[in-house]
Amino acid sequence: xxxxxxxxxxxxxxxxxxxxxxxxxxxxxxxxxxxxxxxxxxxxxxxxxxxxxxxxxxxxxxxxxxxxxxxxxxxxxxxxxxxxxxxxxxxxxxxxxxxxxxxxxxxxxxxxxxxxxxxxxxxxxxxxxxxxxxxxxxxxxxxxxxxxxxxxxxxxxxxxxxxxxxxxxxxxxxxxxxxxxxxxxxxxxxxxxxxxxxxxxxxxxxxxxxxxxxxxxxxxxxxxxxxxxxxxxxxxxxxxxxxxxxxxxxxxxxxxxxxxxx
Length: 262
What we know:
alpha/beta, four-stranded mixed β-sheet, 262 residues, 38% helix
């Protein structure tokens, strides 16, 4: 198992670290509750957790994690992935540095009350809570060296590629894509209109100058005219020769490229 540096992340954390880290989340950054759920599979439990948490907060955009306790009791977590990613960014860490993310609820279960980075925490009814400094029992709170904590196997991760895309950003991106589509549709319509104008102009030009309707017909006519030109050139050349050799000519005939005289 890799021993990465451990850090405790709260809403005001600030670090100067370049190495890889494991993060333990302050209770400020997630919701936790013990529910009785009459289901067996983890998949089914995760699917229904939003309905259990919706009595406490707006569940839109949240993800969930659960651990089985006893019987039908489950320790259930709800967390906002984008909020955690933002707090990591605000603490001067990069998401590429983060290896694993843990809930403080699971990592300090052997303690009763303790202090980490000026925060006071204590378990109440098996749930770890952040205690306001003005009411915390400072004298009984143990100061924890987080580097000696042996982490559990219960970790989560956050999306390292889309960490800043929230619902508002999705709407903005969708609007931009729609706008681009509208512009492209307009351009295509203009191009199609220009193509249609060219076709109409082409038809009109052919009509004005009595041109044949198709290029194939035009090429056929050109080929025929070229053959006639060759024949006429031969006739002209032969006539020139004949006039030079004959003093008088009454009749001239031309067949298969040959000229005969009388």
